[in-house]
Amino acid sequence: MSLRLASLLGTVALGSAVALVVQAVPRSDHQAAGQTPADLIVTNGYLVTMNHQREIVERGAVVVRDARIIALGGMELADRYVADKVIDARGAIVMPGMINTHTHVSMTVFRGLGDDVPDRLRKLIFPLEKALVDRELVYWGGLHGMVEMVEGGVTTFADMYYFEDEVARAARAIGLRGVLGETIVDFPAPDAAEPYGGFAYARRFIEQYRHDPLVTPALAPHAPYSLDVERLRRVAREAEELDVPVLMHVAEMPDEVETLRKDRDQSPVEYLAEMGLLNRRLVAAHCIFVSSSDIDLLASHDVGVAHAMVANIKSAKGVSPALDMFRKGVRVGLATDGPMSGNTLDIIGQLGYVAKLHKLEKRDRNVMPAADVVEMATRGGARALHLEDRIGSLEVGKLADLVVIDRDSPRMVPFYDVYSALVYAALPSDVRTTIVHGRVVMEDRVVRTVEVSEVKARVRAIGERISAAVAQGIQ
Ligand SMILES: [Zn+2]
C-alpha cells in the first residue's frame, strides 16, 4: 500500500487528545528508527485547520510529501517522520494559505494612477492598457504583485488579464498557484488586434498550461456589457468543450444593470443564465447588484463569487450582499480586485473590512463573525474557485498550501481567539512563511524563489515609462 493511500485511509482526530493512525511503509534506511520519510515537516504550530469542524490543534505538526499533506496532528508526529526540511513554527499560527479569488495582478505597475476620479475605467484604464501593456509589463508587473501576495500569505489567486501566459510564467517562477484567465473583450486588446481576439489567444494558452500542477488556465470574458450575445454563448460552449473555468465581472456597474433592465428586462445574473454561463465553471467577481432571487440562482447553479469589499468601497458602488449569499450557501471567497482598484493584493487586509462593513450594513454587530470571514478567505475561496477538493484547509490528502503567521506582535498579545486576532488585528507583514504545493516560497520573510530586488528594479523602470506616457497625455 502506498504511503499516500495509507494516510488517506488513516483516521485523524484532532484536539487535545490527538490520535492519528498512519499505516505507512517506511523506507528501509529509516525502518530501524521507525520513521517515515517526508519532504517537509512544520512543527510546533498553532494549527488552524479550517476543516468542516474548524478544528484547532494548539501545539501540532503538519507533514508534507509529494506536495500533499500526508499527516497532521500533535507534536508526536514530528518523531514519526523524518524530512529533509523541518520548519519550527515556534508557536505561530499555521493555517491554510489565503485565496485571492479575483485580481489583475500585472496592474501593479499602474497602482496609484487616477485614484479618486470618476469613470476611470474608460477614461484612464483602457487607454493606458492600449498604449502600454506588453509582454514585459505583464510579466514583471505580475511577478511584483505575486511577491506582495506571497509576503501577505496568499497561496492561490485568480487572475484575468492580457498576455495571461506571461502571468502563468511568473506564477511558475515564484511558485504560486493560479486560476488564470485570458481576457475576451469586444474591442482590440493589447494582445489581440481584432475584437474578441482573446478567444484564439486563450485556446493557445489553455493548451500550453492544461496539465500544469500550479496553473489552471481559464477563459475570462470581461463582463456582460463588453461581449455581445453571440460571444457570451460562445464562451459558454468553449468553456464546456475545453473543460476550463470562466472568470468574469458580474453585476458590478450601475449602467450594466440599467441597460440590461431596459433592453431585456433582466438582471445580469438572469442574463448570464440565459447565455448558458451560470454554472459550476463560473467565478463571478463583485456581484454588487444582485437581488434575493439572483442569489438563489447563484446558489442553485453552483457559481463561485469573488467578494472584493475594499475595491467596492473605494469605487463607492455599494456593498455586495455577500453575507446573504454566504448564508444561502453560495460559494463566496474574498478578493482584492486589481491593484488600481483595491491597491493592495493581500487578503489579510480585506478581513476586517469584510467583517465590519457587513455589520454596519445590517446594523448588527453579531453578523459576519470573524471565523466566517477566515473561512471565506480560505475554504470559501477554494469553493469559489471550485478547488475545494484540493486546497482551502489543512487536511490529509489536500495540497500543501499553508502559511505561518506570527502571534508575537503587540497586536496579537494576549491571544484568546485566533479568528478575532486574524480578522481584527493581524497585518500582512505578520506572515512569516509561505508554502505552496509543498515548496517553501518564503521563509522568515525572505522570498526564496525570485530575486525581489530585481523585480522591483524592473517595475520601477516600467513605472518611469508609464509616467512619461501619462505626462505626454496617453495616446
Ligand atoms: Zn476586476
Short description:
By secondary structure, the protein is of the alpha/beta class. Helix content is 38%, strand content 23%.
Key phrases:
single chain, alpha/beta, TIM Barrel, 2 domains, 9-stranded mixed beta sheet, 4-stranded parallel beta sheet, binds zinc ion
How would you characterize this protein structure?
38% of the residues lie in helices and 23% in strands. It is an alpha/beta fold and 475 residues long. It has 2 domains: 3-96 and 396-447, Urease, subunit C, domain 1 (Roll); 98-384, TIM Barrel. The strands form 4 sheets. Strands 3, 4, 5, 6, 7, 16, 17, 18 and 19 form a 9-stranded mixed beta sheet that branches. A 4-stranded parallel beta sheet has the order 8-9-10-11. Helix 14 (348-362) packs across helix 15 (370-384). The protein is globular and about 70 Å long. The termini are far apart. The model is unreliable at 1-28 (pLDDT under 50). Zinc ion (ZN) binds next to loops.
Secondary structure layout:
Elements: H1 3-9, E1 12-13, E2 19-20, H2 28-31, E3 36-48, E4 56-65, E5 68-74, H3 77-80, E6 81-88, E7 93-96, E8 98-103, H4 120-132, H5 135-151, E9 154-161, H6 164-174, E10 177-184, H7 198-209, E11 215-221, H8 229-242, E12 246-250, H9 254-264, H10 268-274, E13 282-286, H11 292-300, E14 304-307, H12 309-315, H13 322-327, E15 331-334, H14 348-362, H15 370-384, E16 402-405, H16 418-425, E17 431-436, E18 439-443, E19 446-447, H17 452-471
Parallel strand pairs: 3-6, 3-7, 8-9, 9-10, 10-11, 12-13, 13-14, 14-15
Antiparallel strand pairs: 1-2, 3-4, 4-5, 7-16, 16-17, 17-18, 18-19
The chain binds zinc ion (ZN).
Zinc ion is lined by residues 102, 104, 249, 285, 337-338.
